[in-house]
């Protein structure tokens, strides 16, 4: 087995685990923890990010941004 196929398998397992953990309930828990540890003026941003994460969760893979050739995600300043 080559090193890349081993890493690819590990990467696939990690992606599956993330899908299992990225539930709406866990997104809400994470957002709550972020809001506890940050100033109140960022609460709106945290809520917006959590809502977007849950929306993308509901919409499936088609709603997720595609990776750019440089390894970043689609959109944003580097796109």
List the topology elements.
Layout: H1 3-21, H2 24-37, H3 43-59
Helix pairs in contact: 2-3
Structure in words:
The longest helix is centred in the first third of the chain and has 19 residues, at 3-21. The protein has helices at residues 3-21, 24-37, 43-59. It is elongated, with a radius of gyration of 16 Å. Helices cover 63% and strands 0% of the residues. The mean pLDDT is 79. α2 (24-37) packs antiparallel against α3 (43-59). By secondary structure, it is mainly alpha-helical. It has three helices and no strands. It has a domain at 22-59.
Radius of gyration: 16 Å
SS strand fraction:
under 5%
In which range does the helix fraction lie? 55-70%
- Span between N and C termini? 35 Å
* Count of distinct strands: 0
Class based on secondary structure composition and strand pairing: mainly alpha
Mean pLDDT, all residues? 79
The backbone outline, from C-alpha atoms, is: elongated
Give unreliable regions as ranges.
none
Biggest sheet: strands, sense, closure?
Answer: none
Q: How many alpha or pi helices?
A: 3
Listing every helix as H and every strand as E from the N terminus to the C terminus, the arrangement reads: HHH
